Amino acid sequence: MRILDKYILKEMLGPFIFGIAAFSSVFIGTSTLFRLARYITEYGASVYSVTKLFIYSLPGIIVLTFPMSMLLASLLAFGRLSASSEITAMKSGGLSFFRLAAPVFIAAFVVSIVAVILNEAVVPRANNAYQNVLRYEIEKSRPKTQEHIVIKDVKDGEIERLTYARKFDEAANAMYAVTVQEFDKGRLVRVENAEKAIWDNGRWIMESGIIYDVAPEGQLQRTLRFDKQFMPVEKSPREIAREQKKPEEMTIKELKQHIKVLQREYVKTSTYEVELHQRLAIPAASLVFALIGTPLGLQPHRSSSSIGLGISIIIIFIYYTIMTVFTALGQGGAIPAVLAAWIPNIVFIIIGAFLIRKASQ
User: How many CA atoms lie within 13 A of 326 on its CB side?
Assistant: First the structure.
């Protein structure tokens, strides 16, 4: 790595870390602390439980601030270099805009990759732990009724069985409109449908159903009707209720599996599909914001850090307003999920390309 690259990255590091701390503080102060205070006043939550909630909320907040921090870092770093005429000296030495911006774009790409990894390996687990503490330690929820539940049985890293129920009543220990799909080395071998399943004496018993055996070619091999049949699921109603996850608690792999199961049952999946595409689109915003912040930082009158912070806030507000609107449209099925997730990035990539073209002339 050349001295110039190290110098530019060093200029960015401070503002980037500051951005993470500042924007995280905003999220924590405006929403997280308010929720935690409400849990204490309404449910009498202990300090220990509230502290765990606070810790579990941090990964999702921090990852969300990566794009914002990259925008602030590129704006402030190049703004300072431009204000002190260092950019002019570099250009007079024959360095083009793209050569100066290269370390910024590479750093932004790395930040995007790190965000994707954290979104897959850390954030879903933290969100799931947050919900478990909230449900079982603070709210101490009574049994609830849930719709469109999916139960996964995994063996040796492969799906062995997928169970879908259109309705799950934890209080009645019952599932309704049940479908059990059994797999052998990834191939569907059996499908069992039942009107309902009842938890009785430590076993699930399906009632009024039919079994389909599937041949390797995908054709039905045998059909068998039954009045009662043991369901090959050993999890208790409480375990099933605890296992159910919201979209933000799932990994990309779990989201894909969940979407496939729901699609087989002709259930609307737009909310899960939007979440799936945003797992890549939101981290990619770090690179998109670098495309915006770098040329803007080279504009005149950028010496003030307050101006750079103000510009960052305006750009972030516009981006997340667009994202919120199109997320709602995508979840409602008005537009395809992939467009709902990526349109904000596409819009800002076009703006960034225009600014880069202008700055490079």
Answer: 24
